[in-house]
Known about the structure:
It is a single chain. The chain has helices at residues 14-18, 25-28, 72-78, 124-129, 132-136, 143-156, 161-174, and strands at residues 3-13, 45-49, 58-62, 80-88, 105-107, 110-118, 179-186, 191-195, 201-206, 214-219, 230-231, 236-241, 244-249. It has 274 residues and is of the alpha+beta class. It has one domain (3-249): Glutamine Phosphoribosylpyrophosphate, subunit 1, domain 1, CATH 3.60.20.10. The strands form two sheets. Strands 3-2-4-1-10-9-11 form a seven-stranded antiparallel beta sheet. A six-stranded antiparallel beta sheet has the order 5-6-7-8-12-13, covered by helices on one side. The two termini are 15 Å apart. Mean pLDDT is 88; it is low at 253-274. Glutamine (GLN) binds next to strand 6 and helix 6.
Amino acid sequence: MCRHLAYLGPARALRSLLIDPPHGLYRQSWAPRRQRHGTVNADGFGFGWYADGDPVPARYRRGTPIWGDASLPGIARVTRSGAVLAAVRSATPGMALGEAAAAPFAADTWLFSHNGVLDGWPGSAALASAPAGVLASMEAMSDSALLWALALDRLRAGAAPSAALAATIAAIESAGGTGRFNFLLTDGVTIAATACGDTLWYRDRPAEALGGDMAVVVASEPSDDDPGWIEVPDRHVLSAVPGRVGVRPLTAPVSPLILPQTAPLPNAERTPTR
Length: 274
Ligand code: GLN
């Protein structure tokens, strides 16, 4: 399983968010403290960030371990942003490797990461059941890329971010699909995330060292031992802006706008193959 993190708040050096915290994403790549599946996250990493006044994020991704990128500490020291999404990857067996399969995935103004697995991938039946337009938008041959394409389909249809994530899980599961679906999504203004099979935490507090405005971090696990971290219960969906975090059960009623639009997975996909 991977580890991921999103931040919204006052602009800060990416280094202070990703590398410097004692148990931050950088360290989580070889020594995660709460990861439920897998041990190291050495199959790639990536981060996306938004510049002031530009709604479309930039990305930096590599298919190698984060600790092996000698250029990263310098880039992260001088790059500042108030909206970031980052991930370190432990590739599920059978998934594509390399930069294109490393989160964050991106489209329009969105950045997305998936921590987990869609059981049975890459069953051809699962692929065949997705609309052609969804398949064409996949950035890589991986379960995460397919799940992102399904969520993006809902976002582009007008679903709210947290509703789009919840509806994607509901569509997969109502068709008998199984797996672990911890999603993380931002458009640089709001964060949506699901806890569905692995850990998810958040911290929302004034950023004292950065002028005191509120800053929210949503992450697979706490990056330090601050008592302000709050765990999100399993099978819940979170939506957050700085100073306001909402958490509700995945099964809570959703608006008709986000009802599944995708063909269900066929019976062949109902039994996990591993
Ligand atoms: N299944 C996804 C991948 O292979 C995510 C893996 C994970 O969470 N470790 O990239």
